[in-house]
Each structure stands twice: as C-alpha cells, then as structure tokens.
C-alpha cells in the first residue's frame, strides 16, 4: 500500500514536470513565432517603403525635364534626402546620376536664388542638414569614381559628372550666390567648403584623386606641399568632355 502510494506520487510529480516543460516549450514556440512574424512584417514594411520612395523619386525626375520649370532647391534637397535614405549603389546608380545632374543644373540657373542648391547653406534651419547631405553625396561620387572605367564612353561621361560635383562643391568660385551683395557670404561659404574637404579627406578623398591622376595625368593636379586635398581640374580635358 505504501509502495503503491509512493509510485503514484512519483508518477504525478513526473507528469507535472512534463506538463511544465511542455508549457515552457509552447511558450518558446509562441515567442519565436512572434519574433519571426515581427521580422517578416518589418521586412515587408521596409520593402514597401523603399519601393514607394523609389517610385516617388522616379516620378520627380520624370517631371524634371528640360522644358519644365526649374525645381526649387528645397524640392531637390527633399528628394535627395529620400534617395540617400534608401540608397544602394548598384540599384540606385541611375537615380543618383539624375540627382547630380539636377543639382548641377540648379547651380547654373541665372538670377534664381531659390533654385540654387547651395542657397540652402544660408538657411538657419537647414545649414547643418545641407552640409551633412552634400558630404554624403560627394562621397558617393568618390565611390563611383573608384569603380568607373574611363575607356568606356558612358563611364567617361559619368566621371566628368562626378568630378564636376566635386569641383563645384569644394570651391566657391563658381557659386552665383556669392556675386554682388552675396560677396559678404564668401568667408562663411569658404569655411563650409573647408569643412566638406576635411570630411572627404578623412574618408580617403586623396586616394581617389591619386587614382584619377593615374588614369588622366592632365586631369587632376594636387599640391601636397600646401594642402594635401587641394586640387583642380585640367581645363583642356575637362572642357573637351563637357562639350561631348
């Protein structure tokens, strides 16, 4: 009788232990299922957001044809933020090219301060965001320069485009916003350029220039004795590229 009671008690304890372990396993399965579902939902949301963002960017550049009214600098800035948010160098290379062309086109506008992309550097609310954005854009230009091959015609034109971006936003001499009354802004803008150059140099800008110098001996000249990141574009080659 006593032995039977002990056996029943042991069986009951064992069953309770098994039930407890099964409950723990079930809870772990449920937790794992919740985590998997969360990751899947997150992936789907990100994919949908990226797809919608890229569609919006494509629509922006489709509407930005030569015959249309020039977009304001703020519009270009906002679309650039969206592109940089989803940017993947292989997937978005054409979008990035269009962004750079749009930015350079804005800088060529005559007597349209609101169109000049660089005008946002004068906005108290946007100065820091603009500097951060142009640093990212210019470094992506450097990334593309590392990959492009000058013997391929299309690549050669892209090299010209990205070098033009680097020339334009590391030297204030062509900024129309500094003409006339805007001359008083030059010290501040020169300081911004120095900040941008310092950022690029910290990330390997000088090595990019050395590569360009090896590809095109007349394209890039630098003066390490004065400043390791000071540079200029050889006008003969550069002007020829722009005219073709």
From TrEMBL:
GO molecular function terms attached to this record: ubiquitin protein ligase activity
Can you name this protein?
A: HECT-type E3 ubiquitin transferase
Q: What is its EC number?
A: 2.3.2.26
One Pfam match: IQ
Q: Which UniProt keywords apply?
A: Transferase
**Pathway(s) served:** Protein modification; protein ubiquitination
Catalytic activity line of the entry: S-ubiquitinyl-[E2 ubiquitin-conjugating enzyme]-L-cysteine + [acceptor protein]-L-lysine = [E2 ubiquitin-conjugating enzyme]-L-cysteine + N(6)-ubiquitinyl-[acceptor protein]-L-lysine
According to its UniProt entry, the protein's GO biological process terms are:
protein polyubiquitination; ubiquitin-dependent protein catabolic process
Q: Which InterPro entries match?
A: E3A/B/C-like (IPR044611), IQ_motif_EF-hand-BS (IPR000048)
Gene that encodes the chain? UBE3B
Superkingdom of the source species = Eukaryota
């Amino acid at each position: 009788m006593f032995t039977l009671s002990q056996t029943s008690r042991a069986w009951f304890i064992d069953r309770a232990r098994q039930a407890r372990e099964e409950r723990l396993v079930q809870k772990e399965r449920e937790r794992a299922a919740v985590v998997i579902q969360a990751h899947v939902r997150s992936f789907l949301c990100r994919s949908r957001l990226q797809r919608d963002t890229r569609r919006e960017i494509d629509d922006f550049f489709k509407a930005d044809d030569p015959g249309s009214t020039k977009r304001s600098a703020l519009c270009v800035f906002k679309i650039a933020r969206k592109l940089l948010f989803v940017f993947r160098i292989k997937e978005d290379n054409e979008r990035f090219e269009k962004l750079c062309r749009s930015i350079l086109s804005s800088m060529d506008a005559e007597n349209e301060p609101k169109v000049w992309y660089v005008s946002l550097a004068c906005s108290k609310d946007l100065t820091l965001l603009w500097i951060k954005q142009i640093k990212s854009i210019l470094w992506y230009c450097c990334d593309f320069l590392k990959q492009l091959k000058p013997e391929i015609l299309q690549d050669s034109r892209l090299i010209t485009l990205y070098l033009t971006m680097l020339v334009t936003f590391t030297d204030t001499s062509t900024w129309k916003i500094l003409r006339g009354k805007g001359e008083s802004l030059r010290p501040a803008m020169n300081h911004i350029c120095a900040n941008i150059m310092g950022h690029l140099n910290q990330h390997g800008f000088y090595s990019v220039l050395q590569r360009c110098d090896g590809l095109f001996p007349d394209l890039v000249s630098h003066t390490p004795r004065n400043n390791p990141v000071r540079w200029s574009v050889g006008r003969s080659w550069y002007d020829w590229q722009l005219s073709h």
